[in-house]
Amino acid sequence: MSLEDTLYPLLKLYEAAPQPVKSLAGRAYRAIPASLRHGQSYARFQNEAREVESWDAETIRRYQITALRDSLVAAGRTPFYAEKFAVCGVDPTKFESPEQLADYPLLTKQDLLRHREQMVNPEFDAKHRLYITTGGSSGVPVGFYLHKGVSRPKEQAYLEAQWSRRGYRAGDRVAVIRGGVTSNRAQGGISYFDATRNWLILSSYHLTLERLPEYVAALNKFRPQHLHAYPSAALMLARGMEQAGLKLDFKLTSLPCGSEKLTAESQQYLEQFFGARVFHWYGHSERVVLAAQGRTSNHLHFWPTYGFVEFGEPNADGHREIIGTSFHNHVMPLIRYRTGDYCKPVQTGREFAWPATEAVVGRDYEFLVSATGRRISLTAINMHDRIFDGLLAVQFFQKCAGEVECRYQTGPQWQNSRVETMRTGLLTKLGDDFSLTLRDVPEVEKTIAGKHRWLVTTLK
Prior knowledge:
This protein is α/β, with parallel strands linked by helices. Helix content is 31%, strand content 22%. The strands form four sheets. A twelve-stranded mixed beta sheet has the order 4-5-3-6-7-8-9-10-14-13-12-11. The protein has a four-stranded mixed beta sheet with strand order 19-18-17-20, covered by helices on one side. It has a two-stranded antiparallel sheet with strand order 1-2. The longest helix is centred in the first third of the chain and has 20 residues, at 57-76. The radius of gyration is 22 Å and the shape is globular.
């Protein structure tokens, strides 16, 4: 068990503490060796992520067969998968090639919403489970379990490995603009220092042209080596600085930008403005598959040792759904999970002989606008939060700046007593220059193609 997972339930308490307390506790935590903080699995995944780039195709295939079989066997012990596998007539113990995976049933987000507890491996008791919620980019926030001491150390190791392709080293100073709540007041503070990681957390909720000098001043004082941001936040910062004639008085090494779509044009603009390389990747809370740019190629390459990726049938635009099977999470394996994200796999321009794509479709920038003109990214609003537990879908509607209606579709596990908890949680993120209305609806509005709309707005 990692110390990080043991202390995870105290994270909200740490974030709410006064800065002197955070600094003292954070420095003490950071002084603990990484092997203790992240657990025994961390070194294993560090080595794996570092070495796989040089593996040949046969070595990768053998690894994937073993990892897939382990995940399928673990899944077969759960009530949900045992029934599904029996209907399909498959036996995980006889799994011998990746091609056999096509015989297994697909898994949807609705399955997770309705059958989560039946998908838990009974061989692991509650002390081995870590409950997490998705960011809900599809508008359906989902709860699930990670494997304590395995899933999060693995994520840390792989993120560090891929960030290192553009100059990151563990322990570097990092400034972060990714949905951290620094204040629920429109004119509140814009930052706090997270000493556990040597990171300066900057608010993505207060990033306006009027307050831009505060952001530049904070960055120039902290002098981070890397700016870790939502692509939308990085673009707002750069464009605002350009319009206001503001500059950083130090040189960044890289800009890690994830969780939203980043176009090639936007990446080129950010690199030219900041004079540093941008690093983009694709992943999700469920830890099923992970894809990242290389050292030289900007194509997103799917790590073959992180999870197994498949692609659905092409739609009218030639895009194929990303389908993944998780490795290493034997508490709650996800088998052939339909992510709801789409891409066009490519064969040329690859740095590694792994499945790759130029971009992932479906993660555009969407914003709510406050009465004072602040633009709040919905990616930040839907940061992995339990306030949406039990809902089948959430949708925001806005026709006037500062006024928001949150429409929600309840599921069988929803409790009406949670409405005020949801209201409080949303207002904490939105701030005091928003008025919020909550409305229970039979079904949220969808596109003509039947896809969920996370935001319906008439604002320009």
